[in-house]
Amino acid sequence: MSSVIEPGAPLQWTAPDVVAFDGITYRTFGDPDGLLDAATLLRLSTLRSTPEEMVLAKTRSNIERCLEAYRDLRPVNAIELGIYEGGSVALLATLCRPGRLVALDLDPEPRLALEEVLRRQGLEGSVALHYGVDQADRARLTEIVEQEFEGPLDLVIDDASHLVAQTRASFNLLFPRLRPGGLYAIEDWAWAHTSAPGLLPDQPPLSQLVFELVVASATASEAITSVEVNRELTLVRRGPQPVDPEHFDLRDLVDDRARGLLREFP
């Protein structure tokens, strides 16, 4: 099944932090600059999705950039790491209508509002939700991908832990399974450099992984053809070079000179 999205399909912004599409209302970040400050984090922590209003934990600029990229891609097979309150999954499912969309989250608690929205939209057969899954669990992630998809992936969205080791583990497993021209999106990579750097003080910044990707696009340009970075989102384009999914490691694509720049990080 191919995507049915129309290139100019509009989102209806009814307030700075409220957008509607296909009969669903989404509550988003109100900050137009996309800054992850303490007030935003506190507000988000209190919001819960309902079938009438889904929580979409993204800024307007991030939403519109993502949808522009996904419209062009027209994904058939897509996977999203991180469900949170389900708004991103609901919007992607209704806007792009992929043949198969799989979403997973570390939290084992089902997202009942999301499941109800998918049921109302007639999408429960094309969207699979997996709860209690660690994005770094290679065996479980491999099992899900092999169980859920026929053929290569078109789109991977990582909006899960935002931690280096976990994000790299998922990338190493899923990036080789993208088709040439497919997209790998890493969200909220800049959390350590925003106005809330104390969010995870004992963790290395996810920008380390972004740096590795930028270097890899130079040293292995046939595997990674481009890396587009803004302060909310990193988009990695898969190249035509075959990659062994069993042995791929992004760090192998980082040369000695770049490793020297990263020597302080694990």
Q: What does this protein look like?
A:
The chain has 266 residues and is an alpha/beta fold. The chain has one domain (12-261): 3-Layer(aba) Sandwich (Rossmann fold). It is built from eight helices and eleven strands. The protein has a seven-stranded mixed sheet with strand order 7-6-5-8-9-11-10, sandwiched between helices. The longest helix is centred in the first third of the chain and has 14 residues, at 60-73.
Helix/strand class: alpha/beta
The helix-strand sequence is EEEHEHEHEHEHEHEHEEH
Main β-sheet description: 7 strands, mixed
Task: Provide the CATH topology.
Answer: Rossmann fold
CATH architecture assignment name: 3-Layer(aba) Sandwich
User: Domains counted in the coordinates: how many?
Assistant: 1
Global geometry: globular
The CATH homologous superfamily is named: Vaccinia Virus protein VP39
Give the N-to-C terminal Cα separation: 42 Å
Which CATH class is shown?
A: Alpha Beta
Low-confidence stretches: 1-8
